[in-house]
Specification:
Radius of gyration: 20 Å
Helix content: 40-55%
Number of domains: 2
Strand order of the largest sheet: 3-2-1-4
Distance between the termini: 42 Å
Number of strands: 4
Structural class: alpha+beta
Largest sheet: 4 strands, mixed
Order of helices and strands: HHHHHHEEEHE
């Protein structure tokens, strides 16, 4: 689907470049405001060979071409490029593109590390490692939250809620254009997690 079909611009041209069709590929990889993200990335050469018919085709191509860690980095940069360009289109530009990109990379990395912990839940009778994620009791949900603070970019908040089977019930990621101490950001993330759980109909959760 092309971005102009979502009624962002009637003539179908990029609002920033004003010379190319505003496709998803253009918005994330080719627009003048995001091209620098990729020119200095480890994927600069690969992008020259990557398919350009659709974003989904390009995503699959990269998934087959690079290792797991590099693929996560690629996804992080794509997400950051999309968010940064949107901030310009909607006239709320980031103070620093570089710091903002690092923020997205950190959020994806932290979530990946969390998922590794979830997949390594210990079932040993002798005890459970403090580094392992543990299933909550039946009838209880577990709320996991995280926060990142970057000067010139803002605050990133993330919440994941799972049930007693480890099934993800909901996920929220938010960016706040504000500066605060890490402890305050973590408190806001925890508050967001409790609010989300209550909105889902739960009134208590595992720590």
């Amino acid at each position: 689907m092309r971005v102009n079909q979502r009624h962002i611009r009637s003539d179908g041209l990029c609002k920033i470049c004003c010379c190319e069709g505003e496709s998803i590929i253009h918005a994330i990889f080719l627009c003048s405001k995001v091209r620098g993200i990729w020119d200095f990335s480890p994927f600069a050469e690969l992008l020259g060979d990557a398919p350009s018919v659709s974003f989904s085709e390009r995503l699959l191509w990269f998934h087959l071409k690079v290792n797991h860690d590099d693929f996560l980095l690629f996804v992080s940069l794509a997400w950051a490029a999309w968010a940064y360009r949107n901030s310009i289109v909607f006239e709320e530009p980031w103070q620093s593109r570089e710091v903002g990109v690092l923020g997205f990379v950190k959020l994806v990395h932290d979530y990946s590390e969390h998922m590794k912990a979830v997949s390594c839940v210990s079932n040993r009778a002798g005890g459970v490692s403090r580094g392992s994620w543990v299933l909550p009791d039946a009838g209880v949900v577990r709320i996991n939250t995280d926060a990142a603070v970057f000067e010139g970019w803002g605050v990133g908040l993330a919440t994941v809620i799972r049930d007693c089977h480890g099934v993800i019930l909901d996920v929220i990621v938010r960016r706040l254009q504000a500066q605060m101490q890490v402890a305050m950001a973590e408190a806001l993330a925890a508050r967001m997690g409790v609010y989300l759980a209550r909105r889902l109909g739960w009134d208590r959760g595992g720590a």
